[in-house]
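Following up on my earlier thread - several people asked me to post the actual chain instead of describing it. Fair enough. Here it is, all 184 residues.
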Amino acid sequence: MSPEDSRQGLLNLLGVYLHTYPHELETVGRYRQFVESNDRCFERSLSIGHVTGSALILSASASKVLLTHHRKLDRWLQPGGHADGDSDVLGVALKEAEEETGLARIEPVTVDLFDIDIHSIPLRGSEPEHLHYDCRFLLRSVGSDEFTVSDESHDLAWVALDRILDYTSDPSILRMIDKVRELL
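Reply from S.P.:
Thanks for posting it. Predicted structure:
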């Protein structure tokens, strides 16, 4: 698959996302510009930034979300990680969610992007400060809500939607919680 073909799927997802969330035009524009300008946008080795995939996971009852206390960043976040060359960003989000939570069965609520975010990752060791162009999907636990804490986390927690501020005030997570509330 050519670099253009591998990026087209993400550009299509961004087009659908913009139609759903037209008020996020500026962020979508920055994201599209990055993808269109960098044929290695899915590669972690692209030092200015790269595409990542993450998941806001709803409990089976849809009353809670699963957050991870990220070991490297020391913050409560949604599970996710690097695409590492994989242009199937939903597949990346599902893989990362499964690896980081140990949930037995999770599935997408929709195959469309639920949220996008562009955020800075600080300098760490030999890795320079860079941007993550995060594709976020809404997933749901469809089996047991029992999780396993991976080596990438200090902890995991099911957090009731109305208790999210007990864990984080990150605007991008709060934005996703608002979107969940609109769906329910």
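The CA atoms of residues 12 and 38 lie 16 Å apart. That should answer part of your original question.
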